[in-house]
């Protein structure tokens, strides 16, 4: 699964690498302990609208860095609380889950992160050791995700809301069964894409739900994570109120 991550990338190099325009809230700060329901960065690709919020003529494909609320809210969600249980989406059941299948064909996204946390349960112990998992070079990880514009009661506020407050952008991170070194930590891992697979995943021309499901099932397109660094970190990261760069510093293992 992926229930906690860090984001401390510089925005300009990120949007340059992804060839995206920046439509995100400039006040969204670097964070070392992002939890579900928090605002997160997402990268989407869609046909640009002819309004004041999005540059580009109608019909032009626009790739943009935006802010979404972590926890997907499908159109039928009755309230924000729904998103507390949809922050992850299992790859194996995307097409059969009503919460996610509606976003597969049109509302895909990349969630850029600096690294994520996972907890390892050791046999014979009730305590868990947290690990920070990241690219050793410091490059961002690109996670496959889905987004949904939720109307709800309207009158939304915050960085994930539309300019008129009528809609709220929400997101989920797709996960898969872990393998190799990552499976030693946890049985699930976020579905990470290499940079050369990002363009195909975001391409709005891939608009058939079944095609998208098949695309995501192909592990040849997925970053297996064997090159990632797994660093034991302090248990303080388990508290959602904990913040700061010290959370990703290596510490002695609990076991």
Blueprint of the fold:
Elements: E1 5-7, H1 11-18, E2 21-22, E3 31-34, E4 39-47, E5 61-70, E6 88-90, H2 98-104, E7 108-113, E8 115-121, E9 128-134, E10 141-150, E11 168-177, H3 180-183, E12 188-190, E13 192-193, H4 195-202, H5 209-217, E14 229-232
Parallel strand pairs: 2-5, 5-11, 6-11
Antiparallel strand pairs: 1-3, 1-8, 4-5, 4-7, 7-10, 8-9, 9-14, 10-11, 10-13, 11-12
Describe this structure in words.
This protein is of the alpha+beta class. The protein has a single domain, classed as hypothetical protein yedk fold. Helix content is 14%, strand content 31%. The protein has five helices and 14 strands. It has helices at residues 11-18, 98-104, 180-183, 195-202, 209-217, and strands spanning 5-7, 21-22, 31-34, 39-47, 61-70, 88-90, 108-113, 115-121, 128-134, 141-150, 168-177, 188-190, 192-193, 229-232. Strands 3-1-8-9-14 form a five-stranded antiparallel beta sheet, with no helix packed on it. Strands 4-5-11-10-7 form a five-stranded mixed barrel. A hairpin with a 6-residue loop joins strand 8 (115-121) and strand 9. The longest helix has 9 residues, at 209-217. It is globular and about 55 Å long. Residues 50-57 have low confidence and may be disordered. GO terms for molecular function: lyase activity; peptidase activity; single-stranded DNA binding. InterPro entries: SRAP, SRAP-like. Its EC number is 3.4.-.-. Belongs to the SOS response-associated peptidase family. Pfam families: SRAP (PF02586).
